[in-house]
Amino acid sequence: MDPIVKFISKLIVVPILTGLCQATWAASESPIYLANQNPFIQVYGLPKSEPGFITPKGKLDATFIYYVSNNAYSDYPENGETMVWDGETAQYTMKLRYGLFERLEVGMDVPYVQQSGGYWDSIIRQFHSLVGFPNDRQKEFDKNQINYNVSGKSSYSMTEPHSGLGDIRFTAALPILIESERSRRALAFRSVLKLPTGNADYLLGSGGTDISAGLAYTDKELLAIINTVLTANLGAVYMSDSDVLSEMQNNVAGYGGISTDWLALKWLEIKLQLDMHSAMYDTELVQLGSSIQLLAGGTVHVGDDILIDFGISEQLITDATPDVGFYLMVGHTF
């Protein structure tokens, strides 16, 4: 059995079987913490959706995140640019958020990134067939190979797998509107500083420092009649000159997202989310343009302080996001 499958089985099956029957209700009410994992996008400091409330003072939220995405596609626009994107990207991230003061949350993300041919090609083709999606593009490529190739104003090529530490992020959040008994709404200012700790030659990082600023809003009142929490994120990210397709790179991009969190059972939440961002490159290659990504999944509560998230990502409208991705998150509050 694949070691990743064994790992996931231990993380999910054992805790659920031993703790689900005694789980108490404490909704996470947080959006899915993922962003576009296009290998040429994930090197930048694109923020991921977070809630409008911050971590309480003295509390530490620790989350381990595994996200693997797969794509097989080529593009040859009439201006002479070309792109082949065939491979698999996996991220293993330790996410930490700490309530330093009543009105200040600080945090960091430490990612380990793998760029490879992967193992999911056959499973993804079967999944597409099951839901009625075509596999014409995937069949153009051999299974489980890596081939990242871009030519135009900038060029890049990688045909061998690489892995290592990604770009570390530091985060901060300040509450603007705090949830109260009179209003179950929260608004926070959130910022991310991404440092160039990953190797840009292997798409483990960008080689540049990025910073973002945005607003996160959580509303527990608007859809309370159907037991649903609404969260929205909106902001902009500044990307310093990078070592990845530098002649094509834009320095500023906008981002946004909206998510719903339906509290289906005392121990189960069902989540649906749309994330989007503007183009990070000046090019006619659609794979490097603006994107809209669909995320769907759920949260299982095990005991008082352990949350297990799982789900799937799919591209919508554009080809700038991976064909499909799968994620697993395990979180604990201390």
Spatial separation of the terminal alpha carbons: 33 Å
Name of the top-level CATH class: Mainly Beta
Number of separate helices: 2
Q: What is the CATH superfamily classification?
A: monomeric porin ompg
Helix content range: under 10%
The best one-word shape is globular
In the CATH scheme, what's the topology name?
Answer: Porin
Instruction: Note the run of SSEs as H and E.
Output: HEEEHEEEEEEEEEEEE
Number of domains: 1
**What order do the strands of the largest sheet run in, or round the barrel if closed?**
1-2-3-7-8-9-10-11-12-13-14-15
Radius of gyration over alpha carbons? 20 Å
In terms of quaternary structure, the protein is: single chain
Please provide the count of β strands: 15
Report the average pLDDT across residues. 87
Q: What structural class do helix, strand and pairing data support?
A: mainly beta
Largest sheet: 12 strands, antiparallel, barrel
Commentary on this structure:
With 334 residues, the chain is mainly beta. The chain has one domain: Porin (Beta Barrel), CATH 2.40.160.40. The protein has helices spanning 3-19, 121-131, and strands at residues 60-75, 82-101, 104-116, 147-151, 156-158, 162-165, 169-177, 185-194, 210-219, 228-239, 252-265, 268-277, 291-302, 306-316, 324-333. Strands 1-2-3-7-8-9-10-11-12-13-14-15 form a twelve-stranded antiparallel beta barrel. Strand 13 and strand 14 form a beta hairpin.
